[in-house]
Amino acid sequence: MSRLAGFKYREVARKLRILGFAFDRPGPRSHEVWRHQETGRKVTLPHHARDLAAGTLRAVLREAGIDVEEFLKA
Known about the structure:
Blueprint: H1 9-18, E1 21-26, E2 31-36, E3 42-46, H2 54-64, H3 68-73
């Protein structure tokens, strides 16, 4: 099992807030756009009831410019 498996939307959103991101606007369908408060970097976060797939979460982190270790420590 991957270290990124089993994260729910709420956990990922909480960690993104800790890392300097804030909700910006709704995205297409069940997604949200979050923006970093200092750099302005944007990331699209799926807002689903089920766990985020490890590959999806890894893509979100790549888009946000966040290292996996940094995310897990937040």
